[in-house]
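Observation: inputs received (chain + zinc ion).
Thought: call the complex predictor directly.
Action: predict_structure
Action Input:
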Amino acid sequence: MVRILPRENEAKLEGRLLELGSVGLTPSGLWRAPFTPGYERAVTLVSGWMRDAGLDVRRDTVGNLIGRAGGREQGPDGGRVVAVGSHLDTVRDAGRYDGALGVLGGLLAVSHLVETKGPPARPIEVIAFTGEESSRFPVSFLGSRWMTGSIEPGEFAAVDDQGMSLGEAMADSGFEPPVVDGADGAGGAPRAGTSRGSSDLDAYLELHIEQGPVLEDSGRSIGVVSSIVGQCEAAVTVRGRAGHAGTVPMRMRRDALVAAVQLIGAMNRETARFRDTTVFTVGKLAVRPGSSNVIPGEVSFTVDLRDPGRDDLVRAYRCLRNMVEATSSADGIEVAWQDLFWSDPVPCDSGLAALLARSARAVGEDPLTLPSGAGHDAQILAGVTRVGMVFVPSAGGRSHCPEEYTTSHHCYLGAAVLAEALRELAY
Ligand SMILES: [Zn+2]
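Observation:
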């Protein structure tokens, strides 16, 4: 078996991941939030590696970093870009691999192809999207949504914990915040950003750590993503009656917390009866008035429900919502469900999935096909072009924490799969 990307690249990729992982360290851990000096230092470092590989480097309006290897073919079809990438921003107290691996693995694959085979027939772009995580501003997928023209007016006014708006932070980092007045003239919902579409992009590939335990558990080294999960977010409020913790007999209480805990337990058991890929999480719970000697009068909690299939997601949503609404009439407890966010599952392109599976076999790996339980820039790009994603195992399934780890060999194998696939798509 001869791999396009030789094994020597494993040490190079590991070295770069470690070097990039030391950029953006804060007193509590790694945090590269967009439009901060740490983030800009990371961009400078990666831009340098892009230039070393002979790529033309540019930033766009919101700070996406793009390294381009121009194509030899002319004409409309020859000009369509094969893009590969991920993001350089991180969550708070992050690990070194989420996002960084996709950018550096993609760059390494492209560098090696250009070095050994010359310029591609079709242009290839290595893209480091900005603001994929919503770790500073309550805006996620900033870079990919900007590139595909789906930013909504008002999003640049979103503020961080310090009260600084996204627009102000951009100006602070030397970017001119775009004026988004909401008038797109098309009659639909106003949107902003560039509008790279299918006439410009031929495909988008993203290598990413799995961020869950499934791949490691399967014993395989490469995952090919079938779809990215759909997600429902909701807020549930349980209202009972606050009272004195010492004077109200148990039989006369309307304890909102007891009702909420029973409800969450029931929702959890119900979700476990659905298929394996349906997941339900209550990650936030607030008890009011929140005093040790007061019976809780009101409890609110969040619901995060995900599934890679739309029908299954809708079925689970209806079931849980019905459970909540049925609780409303019980024992003087009132329960309200409020929808906050909905995204449909995004299928990856079946042709690209087949190409990635072939590419995995070409590097000697039998891939596992699996859905992604986390969101990625690829799901945004899927709105304008075909997308394919490669996963490598996360040790212990850990991610979004300093313990996040993927072996150097798995990182290398992921980049090697990209190299095989990019050769087929762009050469
Ligand atoms: Zn990520």
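Thought: report the result.
Final Answer: The CA atoms of residues 277 and 411 lie 25 Å apart. Residues 87, 98-99, 132, 208, 376 surround zinc ion (CB under 6 Å).
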